[in-house]
What we know:
Chain A is mainly α. Chain A has two domains: 23-78; 80-127, no CATH class. Chain A is built from three helices and no strands. The N and C termini of chain A lie far apart (68 Å). By secondary structure, chain B is mainly α. Chain B has one domain (15-211): Cytochrome c oxidase, subunit III, four-helix bundle (Four Helix Bundle (Hemerythrin (Met), subunit A)), CATH 1.20.120.80. Chain B is elongated, with a radius of gyration of 21 Å. Chain B starts with 14 loop residues before the first helix and ends in a 14-residue tail after the last helix. Chains A and B meet through helix 1, helix 2 and helix 3 of A and helix 1, helix 3 and helix 6 of B.
Amino acid sequence: MAHETTPHNEHLANGQGHAHHSISPATCLLVFAALVIGTVATVWTASMDLGVLNTPVALSIAVAKATLIILYFMHVLYSKWLTRMVVIGSFFFLIVLFGLTFADYLTREKTPEIPSLYSSDPILKQQ
Amino acid sequence: MSNAHSPIAHHFYTVEQQKEAATIGMWLFLATEILLFGALFTAYAVYRQKFPDAFMVASSRMDWKMGGLNTLFLIISSVTMVFAVSAAEKGRRGGLLGFLAATGFFGTLFLVVKYFEYKHHYHDQDVPGLNFHWAGAPEFANGAQMFFFLYFFMTGLHALHMVVGLGLLIWIFITAYQGKYSPEYYNPVEMFGLYWHFVDLVWIFLFPLLYLLGAHLPPGGGGHH
């Protein structure tokens, strides 16, 4: 191909704005190493009984891995703010989905006069 | 720029503008995907909160080694996809084809492992609605059935995304082979890369939430038959 030696940013038709940075092979392999270490850490921490911390630890590692993928592999680190707003917006609505659902489910037990799935009282238990 | 071979569609002014439009459009699609899987993760969280012990015991029936192996396959295929996009950006057709083939190879390995897992679950009578039979502690039967229902729905939808992804990959591979991409125009390769990384991302959450809940339990502590 004729463009083999063309630097990344020279093909941009408009000179304005920052050049399109692509992830370098070294960065890519570092992220890969981090993702493999994260996977091993997930299995390792899951094999220990951390009590209530089991799930928070597993989810923290998963969120860290997902962040690396979104920022580096999905190029959000190198993208414009308009694209970033779409990414941030989608996760914002995901948090709304979780938040409103659990605002309901986690507070049902505290209002025993309302029939609850979680009530220990067989009369109030709705099932 | 008005000739028939221009990499820029007539409604765009520049290559950069065209690429921005494609990227935002792809992320808007991924936003709907995030919420599609998000709703399933919400359902999972609600039922796990209702049946915490049953989920733990049912999860110990998973083969975490298979899930871990598949996690590695997907991570490797993501890395090869990054290299494929990078090759397309530099106009290296050979590199693009090679890394696309590698991505397809590891994606296919994922589905092969998944097939054997499903087969094993079918054999073990773990499939709700088909042959679910719980031989463990009876108080966990309902929660375990709900766990397996969510397991098959979530991993099934994820596997469907993998199948669609492999189909798209074949299309990208053929068009790349035909020399349709250049450093000026490789948007389909890059947008497919976003889709592929997203599917990897979903699995990164599925793996610990489905396979590893009972990993700290003693062997045989679950509901083995």
